[in-house]
Write a structure and sequence with these properties.
heterodimer; A: alpha/beta; 2 domains; B: alpha/beta; Rossmann fold; 6-stranded mixed sheet; 4-stranded antiparallel sheet; globular
Chain lengths: ~375, ~250
């Protein structure tokens, strides 16, 4: 026990004296949460719109006003020549062009039909479809009003409704993702680097020739990173509740248990990586490519798992973060009772146990 | 029996088809300074790792400090000190923190750690550097400190793996004085080195070639036996026979 305490103390010194790394570790969750919460977002705001309006009548005027006053759009340019459209996206200032047909109001009132063309920059398909969706919404509500005004009978107008929340808060999706990412990063990457560093500097040999049991060396390494990840977890939750306004709707206790289990998985992975590689650089690459990438791409953090090809969906089932993030979404955002995350808890639990066993047996065989 | 601190009999280590250490047998007595020489790849490090309980022998017997290296490696570890060829203290720990850490690892009492720390710092003339981070010490001092750490818990045997690599002759001389002091206190010193002048400082020397011990005696007797004037000559004559490539 005394051995263990001396060793844990040493590990804390390592972390506290490496001010730069510690700063990164503590600031990273804050930066990520703020970045994902505010900067990297799929919401659209202040999009510059160009308009080509050859008819210039009361109806088009009204629609333009509606577009301009909505919080998403600003009409930046009135085009005078239809040919201008060809080049307009190349300058990158305009994201959407609205083209009205000739004699818009007249056509609308007499034939009941008028055409509006929406042209968006398809290189960013997500944004393009969001933008056209919003404008269609504005057009739809105008149409609706016209109909009420003129009481045109029996005309069925499809109601345009946003299936995605116009106020879509990306934070709801990213907070659980960032939690998974940070915990994995700190526990797995830092633990593996810390163990491999001892191999690199030659101190591992000294430790192994001492009566210190290998298992204690590993456990002692894990303790400070464990503490650090708890601090980070608390930071993330505080930020998400008080800054992003994402509440913890479910049980905080089960959220903690779930996170703890996930931390064990991450620690075991870190230990496992440390048995496979011999340099800090390799450890960093292995955890970067082997853990970060799958979490970013396959955990559902950025891209919905449901829309992946089956083979990727299948692969995603072995990414622990997938289950963690899914469970956090359920318990934190949806606020469901614990039995609804029983499946995720069980999967993460099994992963934790088997990974720890695998890592320890691998660690032992490496020694002899 | 009392005095026999290291003892091996046909100690062998194979990795697949490759026999790194081939039936070596020798004894080292208490307080002796035993030089363990050999070219790179001759099997020194492997032999040493077996004696330290880091590696399990393929066959043969061995005991260190009275404990069987195959069956009781934990007890062996408790009674030895080890200094590797890489400088291996924690650079981001202060001088006294390194001492306290290793005292703690060997389960020494806090009081003992404190008194021993003062004693060692005084001996090395490092009292002023007590609070200094090890990384800012000059290499020579680091090496001496590293040795002091390896015998901090008063082990029966200390294994030194090329301890003086890369230090200047003056510091090497001082380092050997520390070794002599330790030997006088009854600590057996088992040392590998590439410097043949250092081989002369040893009580007895063994020379390994291709995993086997080809010569073992006092430096004086070895010189006579091989008709050489220096240990370097002796070493050259033996090492030339090696068929194994250096790693």
């Amino acid at each position: 026990m005394k051995q263990f305490r001396s060793f844990v103390r040493k590990e804390y010194y390592h972390i506290f004296r490496d001010k730069r790394t510690m700063l990164i570790l503590l600031a990273m969750p804050i930066v990520q949460i703020l970045l994902f919460g505010f900067a990297i977002t799929t919401e659209v705001k202040d999009v510059k719109v160009a308009v080509f309006d050859p008819s210039k009548d009361a109806s088009t005027q009204l629609i333009k006003e509606r577009i301009n006053t909505s919080e998403y759009f600003t009409i930046a340019e009135e085009l005078t020549d239809i040919d201008q459209i060809n080049d307009i996206f190349k300058y990158g200032k305009i994201n959407l062009v609205v083209v009205f047909s000739d004699n818009f109001a007249e056509n609308l009132l007499h034939t009941g039909e008028a055409k509006v063309q929406l042209i968006a920059d398809g290189t960013d398909p997500n944004q393009a479809s969001t933008l056209t969706g919003y404008v269609s919404g504005i057009l739809g509500s105008y149409q609706q009003e016209l109909m009420e005004q003129y009481k045109v009978p029996f005309q069925v107008i499809p109601e345009t409704r946003m299936l995605y929340n116009p106020q879509l808060k990306s934070a709801y999706n990213f907070v659980p993702g960032v939690m998974g990412l940070i915990l994995m990063l700190i526990c797995a990457m830092m633990t593996s680097i810390a163990i491999v560093r001892e191999k690199e500097t030659g101190t591992m040999e000294i430790l192994l020739s001492s009566p210190m049991k290998p298992i204690y060396i590993i456990l002692a390494k894990a303790v400070p990173y464990f503490t650090l990840s708890i601090v980070n977890l608390i930071t993330i939750l505080l930020l998400s509740v008080f800054v992003l306004g994402v509440p913890v709707s479910g049980s905080l206790f089960w959220l903690a248990i779930l996170s703890l289990l996930f931390v064990f998985v991450a620690l075991a992975l870190g230990l496992f990586i440390s048995t496979l590689v011999n340099t800090q650089m390799a450890a960093m690459l292995a955890s970067g490519m082997g853990l970060m990438m799958p979490i970013m791409l396959l955990s559902g953090m950025m891209f919905p798992i449901e829309s992946m090809p089956p083979i990727l969906q299948w692969i995603s089932t072995i990414v622990p973060a997938r289950w963690y993030i899914e469970a956090v979404k359920k318990i934190m955002i949806q606020g469901v009772a614990v039995q609804y995350i029983a499946k995720e808890l069980a999967i993460i639990g099994i992963m934790a146990i088997s990974l720890i066993m695998l890592a320890l047996s691998k660690f032992k065989t490496r020694l002899s | 029996m009392e005095n026999r601190v290291i003892y091996t009999e046909n100690l062998t280590k194979r990795f697949g088809n490759f026999t790194a250490v081939d039936h070596i047998s020798f004894e080292v007595e208490k307080g002796e300074i035993f030089g363990f020489l050999g070219a790179n790849g001759a099997g020194k490090t492997t032999a040493m790792r077996m004696l330290c309980g880091l590696s399990h022998p393929t066959s043969g017997k061995g005991s260190v400090a009275g404990f069987d290296i195959a069956r009781e490696p934990e007890k062996v570890k408790q009674n030895i000190g080890y200094m590797s060829q890489k400088f291996s203290l924690y650079e981001d720990l202060k001088v006294w923190e390194n001492l306290r850490l290793f005292g703690g690892i060997y389960g020494m009492k806090d009081k003992k750690i404190v008194s021993k720390t003062n004693e060692i710092l005084q001996e090395l003339g490092l009292e002023k550097e007590r609070e200094t981070l090890v990384k800012s010490l000059p290499l020579g001092w680091k090496q001496k400190l590293s040795f002091s750490v390896s015998i901090f818990h008063e082990p029966k045997v200390v294994f030194l793996d090329e301890p003086t690599g890369g230090v200047d002759p003056v510091t090497r001389r001082q380092f050997w004085e520390l070794i002599y002091q330790a030997a006088e206190r009854g600590i057996t010193v088992f040392v590998t080195t590439h410097y043949m002048d250092e081989a002369e400082y040893c009580d007895r020397v063994s020379i390994m070639v291709d995993g086997k011990i080809e010569a073992l005696d006092s430096p004086k007797n070895l010189r006579q036996q091989f008709g050489a004037t220096t240990m370097d000559d002796v070493f050259q004559q033996l090492a030339r026979k090696a068929t194994r490539k250096a790693d």
